[in-house]
Amino acid sequence: MLGGAYLEGGIVPLTYNSKDAAKRIGVGRRWLREFLRQHPSDKAGIPFYVPVGNRKRFTERDLERILEANREAEKEKLLPSHMTVQPDLVPSQPSVVPVERAFAASVTDLYERLGGFIERTVKNKP
Prior knowledge:
two-stranded antiparallel sheet, Multidrug-efflux Transporter Regulator, Chain: A, Domain 2
């Protein structure tokens, strides 16, 4: 059978050692080792590898999950911190913000935080 070995009761998925796994996803062993040191498991707590004795083995799905996690980490690095919306700062009802404060934030950030409502305040001249 392709993609795995036949065993009683089912198919055992093909696994790679760290050298072959790194080669398969186009990185070096050092990069893979460092990635696993920084991210031993995914957000659900599932390790990115199958422990076999004192070795790590990787399935195709593990390699896909490593690439997905790396893409997510890169996405977070590329987004400016002022562009992320924190749920506790987003009002449940639209609010009014003076224009002076509106200029301090980016238009996108302001729109996301305040639901798109900005009212210009005019100071009365004596």
